[in-house]
Design goal:
Layout (H helix, E strand, L loop, with lengths): L13 H12 L2 H13 L3 H29 L3 H8 L6 H34 L8 H12 L2 H20 L2 H9 L2 H17 L4 H9 L8 H14 L6 H6 L8 H29 L10 H11 L4 H35 L3 H21 L14 H28 L2 H8 L9 H24 L2
Helix pairs in contact: 1-8, 1-13, 1-15, 2-11, 2-13, 3-4, 3-11, 3-13, 3-17, 3-19, 4-5, 5-7, 5-15, 5-16, 5-17, 6-14, 7-8, 7-15, 7-16, 9-13, 9-15, 10-13, 11-17, 11-19, 14-15, 15-16, 16-17, 17-19
The structure holds tryptophan.
Length: 450
């Protein structure tokens, strides 16, 4: 451990870092959120806009976050303070910490649903549906039950807290090692099942055939927000993970792999969900409950559906945990580095606060479903504010910072430390300086002045 690192710990291996960063990226965003917002925003055309956002905006920002993190070996607030002392740039870091609070507060609720569905598939209550409608009603009744969802929400947050208390290499790294290959395999099997259902091709068409009339500024903003959300960008999570990196890591290939894995999983999930939705005569625009009503209906149609369901939800839980952990880690790293708190105190206190903030989101599908502001529930607002505003804004500011304040030359020399040659540096610098900030600004403007 280098002294510069202040005993914060480093990743044990190169693959360990790629897996951990992929673990942060891959989660409920891919499996739960991507299909439901694709369903709500018109299918194929949305997917195309999403992919453009991933590669043109997300990928360059991810590289920037890794680079800022490894350069400073600090949390987001500390990183901006170190590179631009005495300026207001650390506010971008603060905004990230805030976004971490907010995202984990509702993410924990959905993590709790996942945990509950492991239990319900073991007991068999969630896999013996005679119709998709029944599966949907079962889920609807479950999320309306305040006691049950709050309990599972609490358990999920406790798991996150348990892992983060141990610190990065003890907890986070190990948790990711087996996850991804297994998740890919089971998704692949589910895709085969979904594609062979009667009427599946209608779903494939919805998912892959773009209908460009569906694209509005609102839809583009949602696709952009989802790109940030899915890649864990715009709030310093990847910056924080980069801060635990040793000097000789190749940041370019790490970025490439993380983006590739994350996007592959999301696209694969779509190929499971949409064929199934259409084959079963369900509604693609159903919203946050989509995946939890479609999949159990698919499991009910499979040999050994019970077992498949248990394994699937266990994998989804691990994927959700490795993402939740990265959200909590940002908040915690801030209190450790900037406020000098011991790790244990920071984790326990922040875990508890985030859980409490999340409770109203959990109740948004039941007893508080009528508590609405501008037609949206607590849950909708938490997600909307964080994903569609804080993250794109944070990403835009990160791009401006790297592009103009810290400078792409300084970033390049950090990226090229230890023999890595960055052949695409001109393309990257162009995207970071011009394309990313302008694209995000235009999307915001179009949305406000529509
Ligand atoms: N990317 C994760 C997912 O898709 C969620 C997540 C983890 C996240 N860390 C983040 C989202 C940081 C935004 C910012 O499930």
């Amino acid at each position: 451990m280098t002294s510069k690192n202040n005993g914060r710990g480093l990743w044990a291996s190169r693959m360990g870092f790629i897996l951990a960063a992929s673990g942060s990226a891959i989660g409920l965003g891919n499996v739960w959120k991507f299909p439901y917002i694709t369903g709500q925003n018109g299918g194929g055309a949305f997917v195309l806009v999403y992919l453009a956002c991933i590669f043109v905006i997300g990928m360059p920002i991810m590289l920037s976050e890794f680079t800022l993190g490894r350069k400073t070996q600090l949390n987001p607030v500390g990183a901006f303070k170190q590179l631009a002392p005495g300026s207001l740039w650390n506010l971008v870091g603060f905004m990230g910490v805030l976004a971490g609070f907010l995202i984990l507060s509702f993410y924990g609720v959905v993590g709790g649903w996942t945990l509950a569905y492991i239990v319900k598939s073991i007991t068999g209550s969630s896999v013996h549906f005679s119709s998709p409608k029944e599966a949907g009603e079962f889920f609807g009744a479950f999320i309306a039950n305040p006691g049950e969802i709050t309990l599972y929400h609490f358990l999920f947050m406790s798991l996150c807290v348990g892992v983060v208390i141990k610190g990065v290499h003890g907890g986070i790294e190990k948790a990711c090692d087996i996850l991804m290959p297994t998740l890919l395999l089971i998704l692949f099997l589910l895709m085969l099942r979904a594609l062979t259902l009667d009427g599946a091709m209608e779903g494939v068409a919805f998912y892959l055939k773009p209908d460009f009339s569906k694209i509005t500024p609102e839809v583009i903003l949602i696709a952009l927000g989802q790109a940030f959300f899915s890649l864990s960008l715009g709030m310093g999570a990847m910056l924080t993970y980069g801060s635990y990196l040793p000097e000789d890591e190749n940041l370019i290939s790490a970025t490439f792999y993380v983006v590739l894995f994350d996007t592959m999983i999301a696209l694969l999930v779509g190929m499971v969900i949409f064929p199934a939705v259409f084959a079963m005569g369900m509604e693609p625009a159903e919203g946050p409950s989509l995946v939890f009503s479609v999949l159990p209906a698919v499991f009910s149609e499979m040999p050994m559906g019970n077992a498949v369901s248990v394994v699937f939800f266990i994998l989804l839980l691990i994927a959700a945990l490795t993402s939740g952990i990265s959200l909590l880690e940002v908040v915690v790293a801030y209190f450790i580095d900037e406020k000098g708190w011991p790790r244990k105190k920071a984790v326990l206190a922040m875990g508890a606060i985030i859980f409490v903030i999340g409770v109203p989101s959990g109740l948004s599908f039941g007893i508080w479903s009528d508590v609405k502001l501008f037609g949206m529930t607590f849950f909708d607002h938490a997600d909307n504010i964080a994903s569609n505003y804080l993250l794109p804004l944070g990403g835009m500011m990160t791009a401006i910072f790297v592009g103009y304040i810290w400078g792409t030359d300084s970033a390049q020399s950090e990226i090229e430390r230890h023999k890595t040659r960055f052949h695409w540096v001109k393309v990257w610098a162009f995207l970071i300086r011009y394309v990313t900030p302008i694209a995000v600004a235009l999307v915001f403007l179009a949305k406000f002045f529509k």
